[in-house]
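Supplementary Data S3. Sequence and structure tokens for construct A.
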Amino acid sequence: MKRIEERATFLTARRIADTAVYGSQDAFSEDVKFVVGQATDWGPEKVVRVRDAFDDAVVGFLDALARRILADTNARQFPDIIAFAFWCRKASLEKLRPGVRAGRATLGRGVGFHVSPSNVPIMAAYNLAMGLIAGNDTIVRVPYRVFPQIEYLCSAIGATLSQDGHAALRATMALIRYDRSRADITRYLSARCDVRVIWGGDATVDEIRRAPLRPHAHELTFPDRYSIAVIDGGAWLAAENKAAQVHGFYNDTYLNDQASCASPRMVVWLGQHAREARSDFWPRLEALVGERYRPFPAQTVAKLEYAYGMLAQHPGLQLVSSDPRVMRVFSVTPRPELLEWHPNGGVFVECEARGLGALVPVLDRRCQTVSYFGLPAEELVALIRTAGTLGGDRIVPIGQTLDFSAIWDGHDILRALSRTIDVFEGPVPRRPS
């Protein structure tokens, strides 16, 4: 009897301690808005049943969601949602399916808690899809600010779940919204997840990491990064598809107001024709931006403040264009310190370089995407491998920096979100008849 009482006392003390460290269910239930899903499905009593990666029911649901979006004319006002719909069609997802080696199986880890970035709303959709494809029950914190893309997406998900054959997945997913200052809610969710994924700035990553994980849990982080574009001057002058390339560069930068880490902040011009290429490229971009982009007045002030602040801090820089829509600061050499802080909205540091070796200083740990035109991608890969740089995790043609991939920032996301069962077969004894 005494041992039973001692055990009960221990369990009570542990529950009290866990509430202090990991947060309480009451705050979670009362102060979280479920845009998709419901709180009762995510309490401490939740029974988690992981599925195979690329489970047929999940792939079927995502394919149905894609078809619903693509058939809706209202969705065409959101190019990012249309791109997501094409990405999650069954035919596209099958291309991601890994080959399963004999003696292995890939399943989910359990519950995935994803924190989506506040500056790229469509990432909430990719977070949900990746978590489900990996075989997990998935809960995604969407930005507190209400974006029309997220509201449209949640409505489409709800309508798709109501169709025959998809209702069984209701309890496996949720999109939620709560004030980011509510650390107790973050602690509660972090304590109940098996894998946590954080997208956001360095400050967001540090803030979320204050919420402890259970010892078995895994974590992926996608913090602040910057990206660059590399253009061979001679190839640019000889190109016959300049308009298409300028349009692609516009999509890389202005469709999301240059807020994505994948949007280039620096443009490096290569070769002896760099100056002539610059003189041809920028007026074309300025004309396109003038037709399609309208900056906010406060943003214009921030960009001017940034440009003049750069000139004051880094002697030798030159402000070559103060156009509020396409602002350019010229540097003799590529330097990573010029890319640390950025106001977004169409501000570029540009440089001229004789060869690719000049890129090495900016290919540090914070460099994410290198977009290119006029040179083979293999040359950029060779540079990164030879120099042993810590950055340059994505190498894509100009116009494709915002295309989502299951490999991001050097992480194979699906593999990280799932677990692999390794099976070694031994001799099978004969069973008695």
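Construct B, processed identically:
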Amino acid sequence: MMLSFILFGVFFLFLLIGTPIAVCLGTGSIAAMLYDAAGKPIEAIMTTLPRIVSSSTSKFVLMAIPFFIMSGTIMEKAGISTRLINFAQNFVGHLRGGLIVVCVGVAAFFAAISGSGPATVAALGMILIPAMVNDGYSKTFSSALMTSAGALGVIIPPSITFVVYGSIADTSIGDLFIAGVVPGLIIGVFLIITAFWISRNAEVEIFPKATAKMRWDSFKDAFWGLLMPGIILGGIYGGVFTPTEAACVSVVYGLFVGFFIYRTLKFKDLYDIFVDSVSLTAVIMFITAGASLFAYILTRSRLDLAISQGLIDISGGNYIIFLLIVNVILLIAGCFLDSTSALFIFTPLFVPVAVAMDINLVHFGVVMIVNLAIGMITPPVGANLFVGCGVDLKSMSVAVVPFVLAAIVALMILTYIPAISLLFV
């Protein structure tokens, strides 16, 4: 009991004073380890740290993370975001609210390339938010929509969060990728409907209808970017390569397109690409290392079994109540934790219960990821909220509420109708 108190006490203490989440996890875990091994030589205690960290960060499947990050960075610097926006605008820009569809649709496409919510918001927001403001939408509304649409980046494959969940739950990443497609599209539709309703009285400019030639030219220009998700997913499901190998292929493909097709990349750009990719990878791996220590203490103290059994007792073995509890916990946790940390903390606690209740782990993974995607747009720690914040945080926090509610409605549908997630699995 005291071990659990120290673990969570130190964790929340450091969290409250604004310490990075990886440090909170690691510090709380080390404090608990020191208490648990009181009286033993400090060298004996500390020698377990590198072993735990190494085993958690050296999994083959996690090698996909830096390569997917790098491929997203390459395609972003290659100018694919501009081409996707131009392509979408030529097809629906002439319709009332066309830019709303462009915003969400392009976010879905770019999410499939970058695999990251904040990266999607950062790459597209600088173009789409000013365009929507010029079209007559308010800056607050435009920023809120872009921020919400960026959450699709962790749902639509290839998704880094699915890689993390798959590595923890020992679930097929290929199945998780394909299971994320339909839920991502459904949430996108809910965001579009919500945005139309909010802006129904806005005076917006209607763009001239693009000619057939303009549409064809924009399609040809965006073709190589649109092809990338197809190569990645097609290769995985066709048995050509594993998800990790697919990540490597996406880097090579991105470099080929950037250097020889679009010719927007220069050799001097490689330095920035490598620095950006390594920096983000280091953050994720640092969190992974801290969370692995946290999970180790949970297991050693048997707290994970106690929590899992408690969830079974509270739900009475009813999977409907259990999934409701999971949704509530993750929605609250998403307000304070990033998705990687939340996955490492809660997946080992929830998955045994899901297995005991015969819940498909692929479907359960989708439920967890959608919850954490919503967390990316909820204050106070929503990553997308800060990246896409074109106005003050207070106004943004209010503006995203309708989109958060729409996403929660979609979440409830996806939670209790598993056939949606498992449609193509």
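The chain has one domain: 2-421. Residues 269-300 form the longest helix (32 residues).
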